[in-house]
Design brief:
The chain is an alpha/beta fold. Helix content is 47%, strand content 18%. It is built from 14 helices and 17 strands. The chain has helices at residues 3-12, 46-59, 71-87, 102-108, 110-115, 131-146, 161-172, 180-201, 218-231, 246-262, 283-294, 317-339, 357-363, 396-411, and strands at residues 20-22, 25-27, 34-38, 63-67, 94-98, 118-121, 150-155, 209-214, 235-239, 244-245, 268-270, 273-274, 303-306, 347-351, 366-369, 378-383, 386-392. It is globular, with a radius of gyration of 24 Å.
């Protein structure tokens, strides 16, 4: 099976969900899988929040979630929205993340409710006891009034304890009780589906509802979404909550998402990575994009194939070259995307020696193969499978970048 045929087969087997429109973005129904992220600023600080929202948007986050946890945050939403428009995001697609007092904030601050593109509701903490249904209903009614979709997002860290206790009691009465993990998983699914059913009874339609069930363990997440997909056709948001920091968070997220996306499950995704102190929040956007692009589900940026190095490549020349090319792409992709159609589908290869170098280079749109250990830098460049020229000396990186720039200008039509 060819690569394009494989990608097409993967898209065809996607779990068919009811599409939900969030501004200009469509989630579900076979639409491209949507990347989203979330700020970690104090939303009441409109300047800092708008700045981070715009950074995430520029990095490729199609939706950006902000916490709306108090009156000051709700008051700041219109100001954040205006600042983003002035920065160049004409129609900011902001998701309001509500917990505990969302019903109050949405009713007391109608401008906030009107400008948010979507509301995130957690049925586990929307209210307790007799107040649960009333508070949930208020939030749905506000969404209906402003014609906004909602994400009903259940989280195992804030699961409705009344529901858990009831299911545990019922399980204890069985002749062969199920494991606790199975009951917790069932509670998550029931909470999401029952909340969606309640929203439908209040007048909301399926094309306004997205579901999510978040846990922090890979196998639990996979089991949850397999069951959620089996029992519903709602659009689904994937997120491994509290995924962790650095490689742990990235690997766990990629593992969970890849298993589910390979089975056609998931309409929008977010990588919930713990940033290093002072770290770049856009990392979670990059991770989501690279997962989707590696699986050939979407293309966001030219891909660079580079060998890992071995005893034949003890020189750091090819490593430095690959790094410079990758940085050049990231620095220029936003401009390229706005100027050239299809440039995100370009493939580059930066190889370290003659064993696999020429072959990999010929498979890429543009490839370069360095000679390996102990040789003066002299590297053949291949363009669309044909040998183009040989680069020599100390300026190989810049010359290769110039070849890439020229190829883009000639190959891809201007928008």
């Amino acid at each position: 099976m060819t690569e394009s045929a494989f990608s097409g087969a993967l898209l065809q087997k996607r779990h068919r969900t009811v599409p939900v429109k969030v501004g200009k973005v469509v989630i579900g129904g076979g639409a491209p899988i949507v990347v989203q992220s979330m700020t970690n600023t104090d939303t009441a600080d409109a300047d800092a929040t708008a700045k981070q929202c715009f950074e995430l948007y520029r990095a490729g986050s199609e939706l950006v979630r902000i916490t709306v946890n108090n009156k000051e945050a709700a008051k700041a939403v219109p100001e954040i929205y205006k600042k983003l428009q002035l920065m160049g995001w004409d129609e900011p697609l902001l998701i309001g993340d509500f917990h505990y007092i969302g019903h109050q904030l949405l009713t007391q601050f109608p401008d906030c409710a009107a400008l948010l593109a979507k509301y995130r509701i957690n049925p586990g903490n929307v209210g307790f006891g007799d107040k649960h249904d009333s508070n949930f209903s208020t939030m749905i009614e506000v969404a209906l009034k402003h014609n906004k979709p909602v994400r009903i997002g259940v989280n195992w860290g804030s699961l409705d304890q009344d529901l858990v206790v009831r299911l545990m009691d019922e399980n204890a009465k069985l002749a062969e009780p199920k494991p606790v993990a199975d009951i917790t998983r069932e509670a998550l699914v029931i909470s999401a589906l029952a909340s969606a059913e309640q929203a439908l009874k209040l007048g909301m339609t399926k094309d306004k509802i997205i579901l999510a069930c978040k846990v922090s363990k890979v196998q639990e997440l996979v089991a949850l979404y397999l069951e959620l997909a089996r029992r519903s056709d709602y659009a689904l948001h994937l997120g491994l909550t509290e995924a962790g920091m650095d490689s742990k968070g990235i690997i766990a997220t990629a593992a969970a998402f890849s298993i589910l996306l390979q089975q056609g499950i998931g309409d929008t995704i977010r990588a919930s990575l713990t940033p290093v102190p002072g770290g770049d929040r856009t990392k979670e956007v990059q991770v989501c994009q690279e997962i989707l692009q590696s699986m050939e589900l979407r293309a966001f940026s030219p891909m660079v194939t580079a060998c890992p190095g071995c005893g034949r490549t003890t020189s750091s020349v090819f490593q430095e070259l690959a790094q410079k090319i990758q940085h050049h792409i990231r620095d220029n992709m936003q401009v390229w995307r706005e100027k050239y159609s299809g440039v995100e589908n370009m493939n580059l290869a930066v190889m370290g020696c003659v064993v696999n170098g020429p072959g990999e280079s010929k498979h890429a749109n543009i490839g370069i193969s360095l000679p390996g250990t102990g040789e003066s830098p002299a590297a053949p460049v291949f363009v669309d499978g044909q040998k183009y020229k040989i680069l020599r000396g100390d300026n190989i990186a810049q010359e290769f970048i110039e070849i890439v720039e020229h190829y883009i200008e000639q190959k891809y039509s201007r928008i």
